[in-house]
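Let us work through a complete example step by step.
Step 1: write down the sequence.
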Amino acid sequence: MLTDDKQIKMRLALANCKGIGFVHASELVSRFGSVEGVFAAGVSGLRAAGLSAAIAESLFSENNWAFAEKEFSFVRRNGIRVYFCTDDDYPFRLKECVDAPVILYYKGSCPIDCAKTLGIVGTRKATEEGIRFVNQFLEELAKTNPDVLIVSGLAYGIDICAHRAALKNGLNTIAVMATGMSVVYPSSHRGDASKIKDQGGVLTEYYSDFKLNKNGFAARNRIVAGLCDAVLVVESPIKGGSLITASIANSYNRDVFAVPGRPVDESFAGCNRLIMQNKAAMVCSANDLSAAMGWNVSKEETLDVGPKEVEELTSEEKIVISIIRQYGKVHIDDMAQEAKLPVQTLKSLLFMMEMKGLVHPLPGNMYALGKY
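Step 2: predict the structure and record it as tokens.
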């Protein structure tokens, strides 16, 4: 039997092999039964599976194995968690995205998969108005939804403001980096990254000493969008990276929101256009977003149905409603585990409940309470 160390090294080597992305890596593991099976197949087996000779041979090259050894030493020495695309605990929202990273490096104190996850992005040249909105927004959100996870990109402006405001208000926050773990960019945010690890985490798809390049920001933006239930654009000119994040979020069927600005204010022109083109819903407060996401339901609230309707609910329906009420919205896998029901059984139950208006489905196999 292979040791865990050997398995991790194989995952690192496979992820580093150019020409093998998320879909291809998943298909190879499925075909050969495991990452170990992929390597046991050898060059000839991988060629038969459709890989080119160059890619198959590079997987087994001395340089690739040297890389895996080096990275393994780094992650072990620094207590970094490695997520491989076929692992059960790979972030489930990202698994829905065909361009997700083959591997993720994570160091932090909170789980990546939370019931409520919100990405906050915006311009690097944030105005006092934008910064003030972020601080007020997260102060309000923390009062009604203290369990929400805030995700952003550790960049100047709105990003770092979102991280700092989350920390200040006791919310967990994850910073998705466009560099490797040993190269924090910008360097002035190194102290913030350290604090974030204690009240959230830092996440990257890049190897330890990967330095920033022109493609790093756009690649990072897709992870921010993919990790979240929704993305909020706080302040953006007519062109900017946050609009790319919003576009990616739309392509992933995530909810997108934007904060409006005055028509003459160029720093909000991108937000206004998102709203005008129906690519984002307008929000002016934390309550606006919470209501749109169904995050205002608390444990103490009772069913908004009459006594007769409550009596007609089955015991399983009551359990499902209780679970969704507790979290606001829940992934079907988490619901199945908590309800102690097989996933297929739960799918049938949820379909019937949807027909009754008791629940409604959301993107990413998530469910919220329906309109009674």
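Step 3: interpret the result. The first strand starts at residue 81 and ends at 84.
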